[in-house]
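Hello,

Our lab assistant flagged a job as stuck in the queue for most of the afternoon. It eventually completed. Since we weren't sure the result was trustworthy after the delay, we are filing this so someone can double-check. Below is the sequence as submitted and the structure that was eventually returned. Let us know if re-running is recommended.
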Amino acid sequence: MSVVDYSEKLKDPRWQRRRLSVFERDNWTCQSCNRTDKTLHVHHLKYVSGLEPWEYDLSLLITYCDLCHNTEHLIGDKIHESLIEIVRSNKLLIKPVAELCILAEKWSEFPGKLKSFITESMISYLKTLNTLTDGSGLDKVA
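-- returned structure --
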């Protein structure tokens, strides 16, 4: 698919609605640097062949500011499958997982070490911590 074709798809009303829902979920805040005063983009954490931009599960979309989005593309768009599985099975917040993905790109041993570290007790701790800090609960991410 050419860049022109893809940019045309991003004008589609279905993508625009999906994009707004990601911005709303992320409170119109960059999930990497927490800025709210810069132009925001929705980033696909992983590209899936055959899916239109608006067909992605919300867990694979994240809000980045212009700088963080460009940085992510410079680092690369690859995300380790084990991290995707952790998000799906435990419904962790997107922001920490996105930060972990950056670490995974820079340190090849990280995904395996992370997967062995995350246990049910760690998930329980994260849920408790999240509820205490912002009251939103981890099960909001779908």
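-- support follow-up --
The delay was a queue issue, not a problem with the job. The result is valid. The chain has seven helices and two strands. Residues 40 and 70 are 11 Å apart (CA to CA).
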